[in-house]
Amino acid sequence: MSEQHTAVVRPSGRYAAAGATAVAHPNIALVKYWGKRDEELVLPRTDSLSMTLDIFPTTTHVRLDAAARRDEVTLGGVPATGEALRRIVAFLDLVRDRAGLSVRAVVDTENTVPTGAGLASSASGFAALAAAAAAAYGLGPDATALSRLARRGSGSASRSVFGGFAVWHAGAGTGAGADAGSYAEPVPAGDLDPALVIAVVDAGPKAVSSREAMRRTVATSPLYGPWAASSKDDLVAMRAALLRADLDTVGEIAERNALGMHATMLAARPAVRYLAPATLMVLDSVLRLRRDGIAAYATMDAGPNVKVLCRRADADRVAAVVRGAAPRATVHIARPGPGVRLLNAGGR
Ligand code: DP6
Q1: How far is 311 from 197, CA to CA, in rounded Å?
Q2: Less packed terminus of the chain by CB within 10 Å, N or C?
Q3: What is the CA radius of gyration of the chain?
Q4: What's the CA gap between 35 and 88, in Å, rounded?
């Protein structure tokens, strides 16, 4: 799996290249990130651990434009507006600040993941933007620095810098000094040969953003503290299970960690409920699969979609059962994928 870990390319020298293109893939957390201790620096309350996927890449091109008065951002060919534009411009300001440059950028992003559907498009999006912008502005970060930088765009993006399995260390403390301790790195794993069967039961935008849902959960949910405490134990057990390639234990931990995270949201005031009727139909089908002796375990993020962890050899059967349970869902099969990759540092 070593080949999958990182494919970060250092641009040559500390000068701003004219432009750069980067590709990153989404990741799905098996031990979730849910809750920040510092909103500005995107510092989490707990460590998290994920698998980067081999499907739904985001490709982002960043070109510096000395004549431009403001950043120009298009997402899938459509000019970005509102919150999406604000977050990308704020991220570019951070990169410019570090590079000591003020030149504006033209950013083009092609997303192949259904945006806003709880499939972590912000993870692949900000990992690709971080790599492309860092190269275009001549920052030349190593993989750890790139992970820290991507984190500032969206927490989960810190993990998409790496392929395979990655752990994001929460680090300690708050404020500028804490920034250095919060980054992702690859996690060693045995020969699991896993697949994730992804049931997209609703590809529409979500009613409550994950950012707002997280904030509300931390501020109001009486279940948040206990979940965060048990998540620490989950992470330790998850690392051990990955190392010994124990897919059943990996799946059990992932499923309980995700259900626990959703319990914290359900107990928030007012409640945040992402789980839809079709979500529960898929969860029931996962229980049936297990009763039939198939190792299948569910995880859900900030949306109604379900990702079912199983052995690669069982993926087609799992996909068929999931389709039967939610006939209107679109079902994809993902495997572990690569880390962020710079296509070039001089243009398209
Ligand atoms: C439920 O990384 O999208 O997918 O840092 O506020 O941008 P921000 O949040 P984001 O949250 C992802 C939450 C999650 C769990 C996870 O990926 O660990």
Answers
A1: 10
A2: C
A3: 19
A4: 21
pLDDT of residue 124: 95
**Ligand 1: which of 25, 33, 43, 48 to mutate, judged by most atoms within 8 Å of the beta carbon?**
33
Q: Is the CB of 42 under 6 A from ligand 1?
A: yes
Reported as a single tens digit per residue, the pLDDT across 186-237 is 999 999 999 999 999 987 777 899 999 999 999 999 999 999 999 999 999 9
Question: Domain total for the chain?
Answer: 2
pLDDT at 114: 59
Give the phi and the psi of residue 88 in degrees, each rounded to 5: -70, -40
Are residue 65 and residue 185 in the same domain, yes or no? yes
Cα angle vertex 49, ends 47, 52, to 5°? 145
Binding site membership of 211 for ligand 1 (Cβ less than 6 Å): yes
Looking up residue 153, the CATH number of its domain turns out to be: 3.30.230.10
Quick one: 270 and 202 in the same domain? yes
Claim to verify: residue 131 and residue 201 sit in the same structural domain: no
Q: Determine whether the shortest distance from the Cβ of 32 to ligand 1 is under 6 A.
A: yes
Atom of ligand 1 nearest to the CA of 168: 18
Top mutation candidate among 210, 211, 231, 272 for ligand 1, by most atoms within 8 Å of CB: 210
**How many A from CA of 122 to the centre of ligand 1?**
8
Domain closes at, from 137, 154, 189: 189
Domain span at residue 166 reads 20-189
Nearest-angstrom CA–CA distance, 97 and 105: 14
Same domain, 28 and 134: yes
Contact predicate 58/24, CB 8 Å: yes
pTM, to two decimals: 0.94
pLDDT in tens, 127-156: 999 999 999 999 989 999 999 999 999 999
Residue 5: predicted pLDDT: 47
Please check whether residue 252 lies inside any domain of the structure: yes
Q: Atom 8 (ligand 1): residue with closest C-alpha?
A: 154
- Output the CA 137–ligand 1 centroid distance in Å: 26
170 and 218 share a domain? no
pLDDT at 42 over 80: yes
